[in-house]
Amino acid sequence: MRDLVREFITYMQVEKGLAQNSLESYRRDLSRLEQWAARERKSIESLTRKDLRGWIAQLSRDGLAPASVSRSVSAARGFFRFLMLDGHIKEHPAEDLNTPQRMAHLPRFLTVEEMERLLAVPDVETAEGLRDRAMLELMYAAGLRVSELVKLKRADVNLDAGLVSCHGKGSKERHVPIGKSATEWLEKYIGVRARSGKANSPYLFLNSLGAPLTRNFAWAMIKRYAARADLKHVSPHTLRHSFATHLLQRGADSRSVQALLGHSDISTTQIYTHITDRHMRSTYDRHHPRARLIEGGASEEKSSDES
Asked: Which is catalytic among the residues 169, 174, 279, 302?
């Protein structure tokens, strides 16, 4: 029998150019579907719309979050679309399937003051601390994903122009400007790196043995420094969220932020506008003298002055 899931994954890799992480996500989601179909004693290509509704219900009963269920259904839609294009099925059973509603989720981000605290933690008198400070500065300056950070090569950073080139999802390349602070810390780190005898490696950030860093290393590093700065629930993506949020709070337009983040769809970027809307509402409520009226139409501030 043909392994249709493997053929689909190959198709997504070759024809769509998806990154390895995305391919693994598709593989996991479709593996769930294959296992469910096997328990139902059906082949995956013979599943009907009714079958898929049962699968979705089972995913929810298994405790998967609504977002994870929605992602699995999205993978199934793509798979069955591929089967139709390849002539394996005549009807698309996953089209317009209802999925559990996602709860509104606003990404966690750090305030500017919290970001400053985090940046100040590494001991820049050591080679490792200097490297870590340069990594944190660059992630915040350019909004990099952790996978983009660890893959950076020395040639991807143009300090004279203040630009970093990175390869995002689907191997899409983008060029992101970086500010003076990140440029200065990168210059210091690269200078120390050159004197350490590790200059031959094409990768920008290296461990003590001269090997490129891993995603897990970057995660652990950020968690460690966040704990020292007394900051909770901080991950590499928190720095990316902070980058986008701070730009929008200071007047950047969403299309520019979309390009800087490497989002293919503006709707992905617009989650940050909800954060800035909430921030503006909070600022207004705190500072406008008539933001909160009490009985009789007087403001709270006036009432407290008179009492």
From this structure: 169
Active site residue 274: no
Bridge partners of residue 93, in order along the sequence:
none
The catalytic residue among 71, 108, 237, 279 is 237
- Could you report the per-residue pLDDT of 121-178, keeping only the tens digit for each? 999 999 999 999 999 999 999 999 999 999 999 999 999 999 999 887 666 788 999 9
pLDDT (tens digit per residue) in 244-261:
888 888 888 878 888 888
Is 237 catalytic? The answer is yes
145, 151, 193, 246: the catalytic one is: 145
Domain boundaries, the chain: 4-85, 112-269
Which CATH number is associated with domain 112-269? 1.10.443.10
C-alpha span between 181 and 134 (Å, rounded): 9
281 is catalytic: no
Task: Show Cβ contacts of residue 179 under 8 Å, excluding neighbours closer than 6 positions.
Answer: 141, 162
What CATH fold (topology level) applies to the domain 4-85?
DNA polymerase; domain 1 (1.10.150)
**Is 145 a known active-site residue?**
yes
- As a whole number of angstroms, the distance between CA 115 and CA 139 comes to 11
CA–CA dist 134, 295 (Å, integer): 54
